[in-house]
Amino acid sequence: MLSESMAEALNKQINCEMYSSNLYLQMSCWCASKGLEGAAAFLDEHADEERMHMRKILTYVSEKGNLAIVGEVDSPATQFKSIKDVFEQTFEHEQLVTRKVNNLVHLATQEQDYATLQFLQWYVSEQHQEEVLFKTILDKIEMIGIEGQGIFFIDQEIERLITQKEQAAKAMSMPEAETGAA
């Protein structure tokens, strides 16, 4: 069983992850309305990933014998200035989530809750990957720009990230015989 403070902190993180999912889904809708199908698909997939993050925590809290609580989630913004604004906000949001995960790790360490500490290590690694991903997108936006055909190339580049991610996931799930590994 989790301590009351740890259960409360994890329940807050459940809602944080749900907000992340809603935020990225709303950003996906905005991109779709602007004809940015690549960015829309990328953010839609990312919304699903954030929901999976929420479900993992929800399951963990339940498995530990505590009540997982899905609370009220604020509505995200619906309008953005540009695709650059969208990805600046995603990067800032992921940095916020990283701070929240770090606070959970700190609490688990203080409470000597080693099972939860171990569980949270996946989130620590995941947040590092998320920040790198969104920083990479921002770097590409900066290099290519969003003026003229730049927006077209940015949208294609973001869509390409989905394909790369799918190929990497597929490669990791293949049995050794299929990958040629000995």
UniProtKB/TrEMBL annotation:
<dbReference type="InterPro" id="IPR012347">
    <property type="entry name" value="Ferritin-like"/>
</dbReference>
<comment type="function">
    <text>Iron-storage protein.</text>
</comment>
<keyword id="KW-0479">Metal-binding</keyword>
<dbReference type="InterPro" id="IPR041719">
    <property type="entry name" value="Ferritin_prok"/>
</dbReference>
<dbReference type="GO" id="GO:0005829">
    <property type="term" value="C:cytosol"/>
</dbReference>
<dbReference type="GO" id="GO:0006826">
    <property type="term" value="P:iron ion transport"/>
</dbReference>
<dbReference type="GO" id="GO:0008198">
    <property type="term" value="F:ferrous iron binding"/>
</dbReference>
<feature type="binding site">
    <location>
        <position position="17"/>
    </location>
    <ligand>
        <name>Fe cation</name>
    </ligand>
</feature>
<protein>
    <recommendedName>
        <fullName>Ferritin</fullName>
        <ecNumber>1.16.3.2</ecNumber>
    </recommendedName>
</protein>
<keyword id="KW-0963">Cytoplasm</keyword>
<feature type="binding site">
    <location>
        <position position="94"/>
    </location>
    <ligand>
        <name>Fe cation</name>
    </ligand>
</feature>
<dbReference type="Pfam" id="PF00210">
    <property type="entry name" value="Ferritin"/>
</dbReference>
<dbReference type="GO" id="GO:0008199">
    <property type="term" value="F:ferric iron binding"/>
</dbReference>
<dbReference type="InterPro" id="IPR001519">
    <property type="entry name" value="Ferritin"/>
</dbReference>
<comment type="similarity">
    <text>Belongs to the ferritin family. Prokaryotic subfamily.</text>
</comment>
<dbReference type="GO" id="GO:0004322">
    <property type="term" value="F:ferroxidase activity"/>
</dbReference>
<dbReference type="GO" id="GO:0042802">
    <property type="term" value="F:identical protein binding"/>
</dbReference>
<feature type="binding site">
    <location>
        <position position="50"/>
    </location>
    <ligand>
        <name>Fe cation</name>
    </ligand>
</feature>
<feature type="binding site">
    <location>
        <position position="53"/>
    </location>
    <ligand>
        <name>Fe cation</name>
    </ligand>
</feature>
<dbReference type="GO" id="GO:0006879">
    <property type="term" value="P:intracellular iron ion homeostasis"/>
</dbReference>
<feature type="binding site">
    <location>
        <position position="127"/>
    </location>
    <ligand>
        <name>Fe cation</name>
    </ligand>
</feature>
<dbReference type="InterPro" id="IPR009040">
    <property type="entry name" value="Ferritin-like_diiron"/>
</dbReference>
<keyword id="KW-0408">Iron</keyword>
<keyword id="KW-0409">Iron storage</keyword>
<keyword id="KW-0560">Oxidoreductase</keyword>
<dbReference type="InterPro" id="IPR008331">
    <property type="entry name" value="Ferritin_DPS_dom"/>
</dbReference>
<feature type="domain" description="Ferritin-like diiron">
    <location>
        <begin position="1"/>
        <end position="145"/>
    </location>
</feature>
<dbReference type="InterPro" id="IPR009078">
    <property type="entry name" value="Ferritin-like_SF"/>
</dbReference>
